[in-house]
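Handout, page 2. Input:
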Amino acid sequence: MDPQTLHRAMLLPRTYPGEPGPVRFRETHVSRLYFVGDLVYKVKKPVDFGFLNFTSLDRRKFYCHEEVRLNRRFSPGVYLDVVEIRLNGRRICVGGSGRIIDYAVRMKRLPEAAMLSYLLERQDPSLPERMTRLAGHLAALHAGLEPHREPSGSSHLDVVNHNWEENFTQTEPFIGRTLTAATHSRLSAHIREFLARQANLILNREQQGWVRDGHGDLHCEHICFLDPDIVIYDCIEFNRRFRIADVLADLAFLLMDLEYRGRPDLADLVRRNYLGVEAQQDADIRSLLRFYQIYRAYVRGKVESFLFADPNAGEPARQVAAARARRYFQLALGYLCPASLIMTCGLMGSGKTTLARHLAGALAAPLLRSDQLRKERFAVAAGQGRDDAFNRGLYQPDITRRTYQELLERAGAVLAEGRTVVIDASFARRQERDAFRQAAREAGIPTWLLFMDCDRDTALQRLAQRQQTGQDLSDGRPALYDAQAACFETPAEGPGVLHLDAGRPVEILAEEVLEAMLAARSGAAE
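Output:
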């Protein structure tokens, strides 16, 4: 059966038994999901990615049953059964009579408002408590799984090596499309060096029984809080070597996804509550966990690249997938970067905030914004614009000084923990920059000053557009630009200072910064 013909039929309510009402639809690189009333029907695409092969009807049937069997371990009562999709004359229907043309996994529909991804989008205030509970739940689940041993003559290290080499091979076609050659080269070199250097660590973890038949796809969209129960669904069924892994690889997926979604604070909360004090202080566990976070980010980049390349996917879905893939690959690269203090610098409208947000995501780092802190400190609503004259009102020098002082205190607290922090501010004066550099030196952490070099016309155009939409915290506007430019102290070039052409796409600028950070680390190590 042609996949598109089947898809069109599955979108029709009459295809399903009873009177289900409207059909909602979502797709991934391997499946199409149809939301029908209080049920979900999941149909596997007839695709072959090497590590996954659903091209035959028998294979799709087998893996549908595997999906039900394996997921019932983590989500009892959710996975109902496997149903037949039949062709009776010209009509396609779920169940009934006729020739079997495909199969679908039938599941209970979980409430969207209880999904972790939904709660994150809405910044639900209960998230810290839920993350603490989730960490304990995961630890208990992992503890209850049986240790896995590879057949005699092989080891889990062989599987890890194979998975990585497959990743590098399968992402080569996407170089220049969703990842750069530099990212592919640097990550492959780092991973191969790590696996050679830490082979005994991975082997010892297997001997200690930490390699288990787990979930394999543990990210936020697969976690639902049915209080007081926690449901984890959609584990990997199509390939054992992706599912059977060190339990840290499962944990790393969740941590990576929380960081990808801009919540490194929640990732840290899960990490601390899952591992406990002793494990957190173990350098081997920290390095292995970071290794698996790189792996998870890279795999997600690969998966999104597959969807981007799917000719049967809708064009909007393909473009969204491409953007996500680029972000995942940059996050994988960002995990290699050493802890740093990163400061944006430049005139209003130069693109500082856009780059700061992008880098904070790529580095899984907290983002401190002077505009946000200034308005919080003086109880100004985030959406409330100000029309103060330059250096007046909320922007008078004393208030600016106090804003930077509080930024410095908050940044210092992050630096003291040996973590990266990104600061989005103008840093118009050398004195302001020097104070932050000194704090970083005292913490033993490198500093990067990113000067956004933007021509006046482009900056004014951006400011006018931003003022019109009113969707940013900043009160910068065209009328203030020349006054700021007249007293701005442009930073001199030197170590730790990058002059960036702000007219280029933010993805390219971010990669340039990451590469500079990694090159500096490599140079310091030589």
